Amino acid sequence: MNTPEPNRRRVLGGIATLALPAAAATDPHAAHRMAAPDAEALPAELAQPLLGLFQRVKESLARAGEALPSSEVDRIDAQMAAGQLAEAARAAVALLQTRVLLSASINAEARVSVKRGLLRPQLVQGGWRLFLVRISSPALVPGKLGASSTSALPLNGLHPPGATPAGSMGQQAVSTTRGDLALRWLDLDVHDLAPLDASLEALPLDFKIIRLYAADAGLRSATLALDIGPGTGDIGGRDRVNVTFQVLPARTVSLNIRHVDGRPVTASLAVTDSLGRVVPSQTRRRLPDLFFQRKVYRADGQTLSLPAGDYKVELQRGPEYLLKTSQRRVPETGDLRWTFQLERWIDPGARGWYSGDHHIHAAGCAHYEQPEQGVGPEVMAPQVQGEGLAIGAVLTWGPGFYHQKTFFTGGDASVSRPGHILHYDLEVSGFPSSHCGHLALLQMQTMDYPGSSRIEQRPSSNAPVLRWARSQGAITGYAHAGVGLWVGSTELPNTLMPPFNGIGANDYIVTLPEGLVDFIGVCNHPPAAEMTIWYHTMNVGLRSVIAGETDWPCFFEESMGMGRSYVKLDEALGYAAWCKGLQRGRSYVSEGRAHLLDFKVRSADGMAEPGGADLSLAAPQALAIEVDFAARLEPAVTPQTEAIRKLGPLDKPYWHLERARVGESRQVIVELIVNGQPVEARAVAADGRVQALRFAYTPLASCWLALRVMYAAHTNPVWATVAEAPVRVKKSAQWCRAAVDACWHQKLPRIRPAEREEEARLYDRARRFYERMLSEAQA
To answer: Which domain of life is it from (predicted)?
Structure first.
């Protein structure tokens, strides 16, 4: 800190005053009423960095399911918005002080001394809880906070599954006696994940998160120590302090979870205690529960482990079901069983429309401690079932490839329960060709590319990979289409030129004319980024379809099925049949809250639907467009729904029905799209009812027709041919031709020199193709 010495003393003196609470309470909800110093006691230059620290602590606690009280956070946010930074910083420090278990002081010699905080600590048997450590470091000593305890469970298998005792004292406990084991009941570590890790801030006052696990119930004593590296504990035992915890005993709650018709089923449960903490704790969860999800998945007959108390339980099974909230109690004694029954608001499957998410992952993303392995079907299958998905396609990709491909069986084999299929396939991501656009390859027979023993040996461009996949009968598409195609505009379509510098449907522009692409994946990027290229290529007569995907948990962590394809089947549900329907485009995409069922276009001579034959017209004539529409918005606007509606175009979730809400009404707009342009719009109630909608349109030239609810649902197209002429839109042909050059300049540097000649021929063929389309265009 480049601060003159008198000013430095003023800063450190101010922060010392700031850090001292005038009073404290033991109840986490009441404890924030501590006195703060006057505004002049906080040097102005510390307010902004302290508020930045507060934001990181707040986000970390919220992500772990132990959020700070929203009323206090809102008050601090209001002070910040009003420019009252000093007041906001004082309030933020006072609020964090309510969660402090230990206070540490670090002197200029990097010696760490520890004192008890004023919080009365409480743990829960068999679970984790979070506390804060307040750190005073006037000398701004760098380091990384560590925690240890002589009560830590030893390294002999007695620590909780997936946990490793942290800190120097715990690591030394490798040989124990029976008497020693009786004293070991605790596991602990320092939270070391973004946005708040264990590294000390360059601030005289800092806060870190410490996590504690209790194996036993009752009053339990532990000696806790803090350090910033070996040998940094203060002398005379001042680096440690004894703390007595009240550990609440956990009870086993048996769950009866039944479907609408009374059959046993798997669903999601989001459980919070009377203080708003998520339980089971999101910290260091045991599989199959995952720490980044507030909810857990349970089948009928399974259990939860909870201490006595009052709980709020949110039951759901994906967006086709109503969210059911109930208050439940765990008594201290007696038999304990909770019974739940699900309620649907819509059932597309009853009409032959089966939902699937073709893009989910079991390895390689942020939540895995060992991304080279990931998790197995026993974790993935409950998520698919608990979100009401008929199909869940696990795409094995670069990280975790060699382990995860052991679950791949090829063909139509799957890990299934009636109505729910989990299948393993391939995403070309983390491979040499990934820069050209990630590929989602479904219905593969083998994952091993000919002539390669390692993924690094595979081609550095997509066309050879696509040809290999199609040679084995695979359905081929581009994942997360919009990455690299965002141009800063929400107009769909637009004629701005994207940078083609990402991993979405980038070289789709050159592989589609080769007949190598079946679909592009949407629902996990702004619609204008994902579908502008699709609209333009359809406007020159090229045919591919859209497919809904989530890319869970890499793009989205909340749940699978945040983007879905609803595929119409006339046969029994199976992975091969579902993929074939997806390939044909006999489907619509949705985030699950809006549905466009049985879309048809009729002429005087016939009828066409997505995935079927073209509607052939000898001359322009009136068309009747039909669809059964259903959507469900919450009946009234709430702060939560309004927050979604007001999201910016680059804020997640990109697809959500609340973004389509018209003002404060319960209506959304359903649009008829012809060659990419809306020709009719209808405001329709999103009240959960299935409504028959009818549109009329007379095409003067060949076209494709589709229906959409922007940000929520989109059909695949019906093609209408007038006088046997092809679809040719001049502006789109011009855009496609320019896009080939834009993509070439981005991708060329990463194509291997030995492969560039063949890739150049591919791009030249695409240039000639779009030039021919342009020469045939009329308007």
So the answer is: Bacteria
**pLDDT at 334 (0 to 100):** 85
Beta strands in 276-308 (DSSP E): 278-279, 296-299, 303-307
Cα 404–410–413 angle (5° rounding)? 100
d(CA 465, CA 613): 29
Through-space distance between the first and last CA atoms of the chain, rounded to whole angstroms = 65
Where do the H-state alpha helices sit in 563-638? 575-584
Per-residue 3-state assignment (H helix, E strand, C coil) for 236-288: HHCCEEEEEEEEECEEEEEEEEECCCCCECEEEEEEEECCCCEECCCCCCCCC
DSSP 411: T
Least confident of 27-36, 416-425, 639-648: 27-36
| Dist CA 224 CA 105 (whole Å) | 15
In three-state form (DSSP H/G/I as H, E/B as E, the rest C), the secondary structure along 56-100 is HHHHHHHHCCCCCCHHHHHHHHHHHHCCCHHHHHHHHHHHHHCCE
pLDDT at 335: 83
Residue 168's pLDDT is 32
Residue carrying structure tokens 């995952």:
290
In sequence order, the β-bridge partners of residue 624 are: 602, 696
* Residue at token pair 């990709």: 397
CATH number at 297 reads 2.60.40
CB–CB of 318/388 below 8 Å? yes
CA-based R_g, the chain, Å: 29
**414 within some domain:** no
Whether 501 and 461 have beta carbons less than 8 Å apart is answered as: no
Q: Which amino acid is at 129?
A: R
Q: How far apart are CA 133 and CA 114, in angstroms?
A: 10
675's tokens: 């060659």
What is the CATH classification number for the domain harbouring 649? 2.60.40.10
Specify if 23 maps to a domain: yes
Give the pLDDT mean for 51-75. Answer: 94
Mean pLDDT in residue range 440-452 = 96
Q: What is the mean pLDDT of the chain?
A: 89
Residue 272: its H or E element: strand 266-273
Residues in the chain: 779
For residue 519, pLDDT over 50 is answered with: yes
Q: Which structure tokens are listed for 202?
A: 């360059």
Instruction: For residue 753, say if its preceding peptide bond is cis, omega within 30 degrees of 0.
Output: no
pTM as predicted: 0.86
**Domain, as residue range, for 62:** 1-98
Q: How many domains does the chain have?
A: 3
Tell me the β-bridge partners of 522: 548
CB neighbours of residue 231 within 10 Å: 9
Among 307, 341, 375, residue at a domain's last position: 341
More confident residue, 368 or 75: 75
Least confident of 39-48, 315-324, 377-386, 493-502: 39-48
Report CA-CA distances (Å) from 663 to 595, 631, 658.
21, 16, 10
Distance (Å, whole) CA 660 – CA 667: 8
Please, are residues 638 and 690 in contact by the beta-carbon 8 Å criterion?
A: no
pLDDT category at 244 given cuts 50, 70, 90 is: very high
Is 60 exceeded by the pLDDT of residue 182? Answer: no
Average pLDDT of the residues in 108-132: 91
Query: Residue 562 domain-assigned?
Result: no
Largest CA distance in the chain: 97
Determine contact, residues 125/217, Cβ cutoff 8 Å. Answer: yes
How is 548-575 classified by DSSP, letter by letter? E---BTTT--S-TTSSEEEEE-SS---H
For the stretch 698-731, pLDDT in tens is: 999 999 999 999 999 999 999 999 999 999 999 9
Among 734, 689, 686, 681, smallest CA distance to 708 is for 681
- Please report, as a single letter, which amino acid is at residue 6: P
* 519 assigned to some structural domain: no
Give the end of a domain, one of 727, 744, 771: 727
Poorest-pLDDT segment among 26-40, 609-623, 687-701: 26-40
Place of tokens 């010392």: 16
